[in-house]
Specification:
By secondary structure, the chain is of the alpha+beta class. It is about 25% helix and about 20% strand. The protein has 2 helices and 5 strands; from the N terminus they run E-H-E-E-H-E-E. The chain binds zinc ion (ZN). The site of zinc ion (ZN) has 8 residues, from loops.
Length: about 100
């Protein structure tokens, strides 16, 4: 079991865990309930672990991609590369044809 990410924000940890699980990577959340304490002790910070060492590299890449992804500007409109229609920047797929916008 390898610890790959540590954050006091349990929401981010939980999101990353479901992200990895969706990719078929088995994870374990250490100190899951630690954020309920008022004393920030590093040893009990929630930590996301990957069970299989062979999956760590892929998992770290997924986490990095998630953390570095620019948050979409909701005011920006994206032009669909497939049909040319404008879609709100909050959408990942075209409202018109369903094609990928990114
Ligand atoms: Zn389209």
């Amino acid at each position: 079991m390898i610890e790959v990410y540590r954050d006091r924000d349990s929401a981010t940890i939980g999101h990353l865990q479901s992200l990895l699980e969706a990719e078929g990577i088995s994870t374990y959340l250490r100190n899951e309930h630690a954020s309920s304490t008022t004393i920030p002790i590093p040893e009990v910070t929630p930590a996301l672990c990957i069970l299989e060492e062979a999956e760590v590299e892929r998992g770290v890449d997924l986490i990095r991609a998630y953390l570095e992804a620019p948050s979409a500007d909701p005011n920006e409109e994206l032009t669909c590369p497939t049909c040319g229609e404008l879609s709100p920047g909050t959408l990942a797929v075209c409202w018109s044809c369903g094609g990928d916008l990114v």
